[in-house]
Amino acid sequence: MPVSSDLDITRILETTRTIALLGASHKPDRASHRVMQALLAHGYEVYPVNPGLAGQQLLGCTVHRNLAEIPVAIDMVDVFRQPLYLPGIVREVIAIGAKTLWTQLGVVDAAAAVTAEQAGLEVVMDRCPAIELPRLGIRKPGAAPVRPTVAAQ
């Protein structure tokens, strides 16, 4: 069953450092582009994946053809692809040894989630990390803690 508790999602987002963004777009009006900007601004290392843009730069990051081409260990794969592609994506995510499969809003496949979980992956489905980070109050690593404001007397 995919992770759904705020506590578990917070733990995943706080321990993740490297994210492969599968289905990255160079178009600023696309959700994947905006989410990539948000993840970078939050301090994550983001590795965009899009075979049509492979080798190009996107928001200062080199775009990779597929997950296997990424030269570092990936903690989380954030999926911006249609649900029908999830079974194949899960196989790729397992093959690279990622820890978490995260699928964006509307990207749901229960059978693919079970396959990923059986392989030891944590699965977050039908959520967006760019929404969850501020909702859960997760700050950039090293950011000053939020201090309560004291009303002037």
Quick rundown:
Strand 5, helix 3 (about 85-95) and strand 6 (about 100-105) form a beta-alpha-beta unit. The strands form two sheets. Strands 2-1-5-6-7 form a five-stranded parallel sheet, sandwiched between helices.
Task: Please give a structural write-up.
With 153 residues, the chain is an alpha/beta fold. The chain is 31% helix and 16% strand. The chain has five helices and seven strands. A five-stranded parallel beta sheet has the order 2-1-5-6-7, sandwiched between helices. A two-stranded antiparallel sheet has the order 3-4. Helix 3 (86-96) runs parallel beside helix 4 (110-118).
Search tags:
alpha/beta, 153 residues, 5 helices, disordered C terminus, Rossmann fold, two-stranded antiparallel sheet, five-stranded parallel sheet
List the helices and strands and how they pair.
Blueprint: H1 6-15, E1 18-22, H2 31-41, E2 45-49, E3 57-58, E4 61-62, E5 76-79, H3 86-96, E6 100-103, H4 110-118, E7 122-124, H5 129-135
Parallel strand pairs: 1-2, 1-5, 5-6, 6-7
Antiparallel strand pairs: 3-4
Helix pairs in contact: 3-4
CATH homologous superfamily assignment: NAD(P)-binding Rossmann-like Domain
Q: Whole-number radius of gyration?
A: 16 Å
Return residue spans where pLDDT drops below 50 for at least 5 consecutive residues. 144-153
Oligomer: single chain
Distance between the termini: 51 Å
Order of helices and strands, N to C?
HEHEEEEHEHEH
Mean pLDDT: 92
- Provide the CATH topology: Rossmann fold
Q: Estimate the helix proportion, in percent.
A: 25-40%
